[in-house]
Specification:
heterodimer; A: alpha+beta; Gyrase A, domain 2; eleven-stranded mixed beta sheet; four-stranded mixed beta sheet; 20 helices; 37% helix; elongated; B: alpha/beta; SH3 type barrels; Rossmann fold; eight-stranded mixed beta sheet; five-stranded antiparallel beta sheet; globular
Chain lengths: 644, 464
């Protein structure tokens, strides 16, 4: 079996399930709970804040697992403050102002686009994030719509919930116990669209995400560009558990990521079975730890020796019965040791890799056989047991050893619920944090509930565009290519495009102009801002009135861009004025033309080139071509017709 | 107000009728069928201040939603799931090497939890909870906790000041080596002032502490403030002090003298500032108490008698002067039986001329009128202009650089002891602990102006 090929995997057999959460920034002027302008800024920060986070109880009286994990990390958090983008609200030094109503209205419209039911009364909740990415320690979020759907293939994808919430900070760096965030993005309004786990294979996961993004964008009410949309992808297989791959910025990565996550869970379940075969259970799981510093004091070739040099320690742990399993493959190129390393990196903040040694890599990391054996002997380890060594500041090593034991224990149950981050190859993932549950939710006591009147919903309903799947169907039926359709349905000037079609009666002309020609001109450096909505509509009218023909479009646009001319001026300037009768005479002239190439095909091209130079857009290309063809004796016309 | 056992907590009118109709109670697991969709979750209590048309559910995702009662067609009861908000409780350990500190709770957000019926946070207090939430305290001191009251700081008054002062006095006489008072922040400086007058020359530190972000938030300053307060309570300065954040960053706390401190921002963590002087010390877990000045009262006492003077006269007010204040206002105050008025005057301590006669009349009626400045920083200087001299002639007594709220507390306290004009004046003008200072240090007034290049540079260089 080729593990790299998604076609070779029986996803249905695995019980593959995938759900998507898509986060998209809303195009509002101000942030969600204060009146700061939205937008990123570069350059040095104006000031810095220094904070910590402590876990708190949910209102049901439970601590959230993620929260407790973050507490273990003992992170120092620095916030870069930007005076023009941040006020005391983002600093968590002022309670929230009333929610941005523009964002609520956009959220309602998007929820309606996803055919959700709109809640009668929205309640702001606090969703705990103790990683520091939000200075309050929680994200303010509110559900606006539930129970929606979107057509896909021959079935429906359920949209469970649509939330409006505030965006988090941008991470600047995360080294050891210090994490730095930039606050400009903080509190930008987002919509979060959550699907049920309805995707049955990685290809579907990618396709559905595209459709979700398309529906968001079709509204014209969301921000675009890098970072404006991020996806969280939830994957599980039968016997496994929900794992969330966090913050995927490129939709194209989703099929690969979900594919490898399914394989990872499969491997972890096989590891579980192996442990079961070895009679290792949660009840008899055992380990012991020791300080191995003295064993490696005199081995400067050991990569972890820096820890000793800096006053730290080297810790060792023996996991009973795990012999040979640390190197268990969980991805094509990663092993269970990487699962352990991820926990150690995140929770113990030992982020200098490699951060642990085991039997397979200990030689490469510079731990000689003799020392390895004496460490093992100190722990009474035999060949059935796994021996792992880790190093760093003492407190962190203690945390690391506990985490290694905890993760090994979880292997007995199979797949732990985790949030995982995408590694730089875009395929594999690494541990980010324990998957948070509903216990991290807490009602926001700073903001009153927001009643959503039916009138408001009906107003929103009246102003939403048609559904993207309907738009797609109509455009496809009009004979446009799939590529053009995909570009057009989310195009910011879709409405102008529609009007141009109405005026001109030529959907293919209007489609190419809006979706392709303008982009082409922009890429070549033309001032396409001069192509205002009004001018495009004027152009469509002139086109209808046959003031120019299709072939002249590009030249006219160029003149408008370059010289900022009105459409009529540009046509006067570039299109040769000629009546029908005069056009006939041109053809008479042509019959006298000397220097014709002998080859009939070249002859036709030569003649066409000559007339087009002067009459492009003034006389329909088809008419010129027919005339030229008639004058030459060439028969095979179809293969060399001019492109539209 | 709804009682704890109320099965329809906070629900009224159509919301209440709907719950009764479908026979479901708060904390039941329910499935609600409505025109707005089908929702499954736990039925939550309703905020009493919110409208009566919606019922609130906690969905399984943890989100809350309100469903309009009139749109509900059925509610199915599927079980029960009562919230049991409780911090893990642990017995506070005892170490004979450490100072014995008593924490007196008055309410406020130093320890608080959610109140569903009001939708706000309410004070909660138990020693085990506190240790469960802030275990670091055990490294600093031995702690006993007593809940004295459970009220918001704006509800504090003489009915609390007097028993609180008596309790502090008793705890110290019983051997407490440091006192921490958990207090809401709004009137913390008022309480700090009155305690300074009621509990004089204490031999041990008395620390007021609170939080600007409630302790139900991960970013709360409550734990750090409490740790700093415990450090201060075991420290060398034996005065009544407010211990709150210095910068808004998690760096260090400041110890402010109880008579010179004021809450200067409605919400910043660093809201508390010493006015017209500098704070007594910085304090944090790593460095302990670092005095910024030498003239503090040391642990063990300064030789002066440790005494309790729990008096208070409620017939005192503060009059915040504004242009064109009318004389009948003062007549009304006197008519209502007030015996003392602290005026927060403009500039150096001024009020408008049309009030002069009524002031002379009021003092003639035996009302004690004292002048402070609404600029907060700086001294009352009534000799500079004729107006000031005239006002003094009318019977107004200038109070140097005593803060208006401190002057209010002190006058209330004094008038609880004597009504003798000269005696009151003597006590008012004799500082008990820094409420009047002989001189104002040049750095006693530092309000930096944002936007200036040098200030912007300072902000870049140091944590906010």
């Amino acid at each position: 079996m080729n593990l790299w090929d998604t076609n070779e995997i029986d996803y249905a057999g695995l019980g593959f399930r995938c759900g998507i959460e898509i986060h998209q920034q809303l195009d509002t002027h101000q942030k969600l709970f204060c009146h700061c302008p939205v937008g990123l800024v570069e350059g040095p920060a104006n000031a810095r804040l220094f904070r910590h986070m402590r876990p708190t109880l949910s209102e049901m009286g439970e601590y959230d697992g993620t929260a407790l994990m973050e507490k273990k990390t003992r992170k120092e958090i620095i916030y870069e403050i930007l005076n023009d983008r941040v006020c005391t609200y983002e600093m968590d030094d002022t309670p929230p102002f009333l929610i941005n109503q523009q964002a609520v209205d956009i959220g309602i419209k998007l929820a309606l686009l996803f055919q959700c039911k709109i809640v009668d009364e929205a309640h702001i909740s606090r969703k705990q994030y103790l990683d520091g990415s939000i200075p309050t320690g929680f994200q303010r979020t509110t559900v606006l719509g539930t129970d929606g759907w979107m057509p896909y293939k021959d079935r429906r994808i359920t949209i469970r919930q649509i939330n409006v919430e505030e965006d988090a900070c941008r991470e600047v760096s995360d080294v050891g116990h210090r994490i730095v965030f930039r606050t400009d993005r903080l509190s930008t309004p987002l919509v979060e669209v959550i699907t049920a786990p309805d995707m049955r294979n990685p290809i579907e996961a990618g396709e559905v995400t595209k459709l979700l993004a398309e529906t968001n964008r079709i509204s014209g009410l969301v921000r675009r560009g890098i970072g404006a949309a991020r996806q969280d992808v939830n994957v599980s297989i039968t016997g496994g558990d929900r794992v969330e791959i966090k913050g995927v910025e490129r939709i194209g990565l989703i099929p690969g990521l979900t594919h490898f996550e399914a394989l990872r869970q499969k491997s972890l379940l096989e590891l579980r079975d192996e442990l079961c075969n070895r009679d290792i259970s949660l009840d008899n799981f055992a380990y012991n730890i020791s300080d191995a510093t003295r064993h490696l004091l005199k081995t400067p070739e050991f990569v972890g020796h820096w820890a000793v040099d800096q006053g730290g320690v080297i810790g060792a742990i023996c996991i009973r019965g795990f012999g040979g399993l640390i190197g268990w493959y969980v991805f094509p190129e990663r092993t269970f040791a990487d699962e352990l390393g991820g926990r150690v990196r995140v929770i113990a903040c030992l982020d200098k890799t490699p951060n642990l040694a085991h039997r397979l890599n200990r030689a490469a990391l510079g731990i000689p056989e003799r020392e390895w054996e004496s460490i093992g002997k100190g722990l009474n380890a035999n060949t059935n047991d796994a021996l792992i060594v880790t190093w760093g500041p003492q407190r962190d090593v203690v945390t690391a050893l506990e985490e290694i034991a905890a993760r090994c224990r979880e292997a007995i149950s199979g797949v732990p619920q985790e949030t995982r981050q995408v590694l730089s190859n875009g395929r594999y993932t690494d541990f980010e944090r324990i998957l948070p549950g509903p216990d991290r939710m807490y009602p926001d006591t700073d903001h009153p509930p927001i009643p959503i009147e039916m009138k408001r919903v009906s107003n929103a309903r009246a102003s939403i565009p048609e559904f993207p799947w309907e738009r797609r169907r109509k455009l496809s039926e009009a004979g446009l290519s799939q590529q053009l359709v995909s570009q057009l349905i989310v195009h910011p000037r879709f409405e102008i495009f529609q009007k141009m079609v109405e005026i001109s009666g030529d959907i293919r002309w209007a489609a190419r102009l809006v979706a392709e020609t303008i982009k082409h001109l922009q890429r070549r450096g033309f001032e396409t801002a001069n192509l205002t909505d009004k001018r495009l509509l004027d152009l469509a009218e002139s086109y209808r009135e046959k003031e120019f023909y299709r072939e002249g479009t590009l030249d006219i646009l160029k003149v408008i861009c370059k010289r900022n001319r009105k459409v009529s001026e540009a046509i006067d300037e570039i299109i040769f004025k000629i009546t029908d009768e005069e056009a006939e005479l041109i053809f008479e002239d042509l019959s006298d033309t000397a220097n014709l190439p002998a080859d009939p095909f070249k002859q036709k091209r030569y003649l066409m080139g000559q007339v087009m130079r002067k009459y492009r857009g003034a006389i329909p290309g088809k008419r010129l071509w027919d005339k030229v063809s008639a004058m030459t004796s060439r028969k095979d016309k179809a293969t060399s017709e001019p492109r539209e | 107000m709804a009682t704890v056992d109320d099965p329809y907590k906070g629900y009224r009118n159509s919301g209440l009728e709907t719950l009764k109709k479908f026979d479901v109670r708060v904390w039941d697991r329910v499935k609600v069928l409505s025109e707005s969709g089908t929702f499954e979750g736990v039925l939550l209590p309703r905020n009493e201040m919110a409208d009566t048309f919606h019922i609130v559910l906690k969905l399984d995702t943890g989100y809350n939603v309100g469903v309009r009662a009139e749109r509900i067609s059925a509610i199915e009861n599927t079980g029960r799931s009562e919230g049991h908000y409780k911090v893990p409780e642990k017995e506070f350990p005892y170490d004979p090497e450490k100072h014995n500190v008593v924490l007196l709770g008055t309410g406020g957000t130093i320890a608080s939890r959610l109140d569903y019926t009001t939708g706000a946070v309410i004070p909660a207090f138990s020693p085990g909870e506190l240790f469960g939430a802030v275990p670091e305290l055990a490294d600093i001191c031995n702690l006993q906790t007593h809940k004295v009251f459970g009220i918001f700081s704006e509800d504090m008054g003489p009915a609390q000041y007097i028993p609180l002062a008596q309790r502090i006095y008793k705890e110290i006489n019983d051997g407490a080596e440091g006192i921490i008072i958990g207090h809401g922040t709004d009137t913390m400086h008022h309480t700090a002032a009155i305690l300074t007058f009621m509990v004089q020359n204490p031999p041990v530190p008395i620390i007021l502490v609170g939080s600007q972000r409630s302790s139900d938030r991960p970013s709360s300053d409550a734990a750090r403030n409490l740790i700093n307060a415990a450090m201060a309570a075991t420290g060398p300065i034996a005065e009544i002090m407010v211990c709150m954040f210095g910068p808004t960053s998690d760096k260090y706390g400041l110890l402010h003298r109880g008579t010179r401190v004021r809450k200067m921002h409605s919400s910043y963590r660093s809201a508390f500032r010493t006015i017209g002087d500098i704070p007594l010390a910085t304090v944090d877990r790593e460095n302990g108490v670092k005095p910024l000045r030498r003239d503090f009262n040391p642990r063990g006492g300064s030789g002066k008698e440790f005494k309790l003077v729990p008096t208070f006269n409620e017939k005192v007010t503060i009059l915040y002067y504004y242009p064109n204040m009318q004389e009948n206002l003062i007549r009304a105050i006197v008519g209502a039986g007030y015996e003392g008025i602290v005026i927060a005057g403009t500039g150096l301590g001024h009020i408008n001329r049309p009030l002069y006669n009524v002031i002379r009349w009021a003092t003639g009626q035996g009302v004690h009128i004292y002048m402070t400045v609404q600029t907060l920083w700086g001294f009352v200087q009534m000799f500079v202009y004729d107006n000031g001299r005239y006002l003094m002639d009318c019977g107004i007594v200038p109070l140097a650089n005593m803060l208006p709220e401190v002057a209010y507390m002190k006058l209330s306290w004094v008038l609880g002891q004597t009504n003798d004009r000269e005696e009151v004046k003597k006590i008012m003008l004799t500082p008990i602990n820094g409420e009047i200072t002989e001189r104002e240090r040049p750095d006693g007034y530092l309000v930096f102006q944002g936007g200036l290049p040098e200030v912007e540079q300072f902000m870049r260089d140091y944590l906010l």
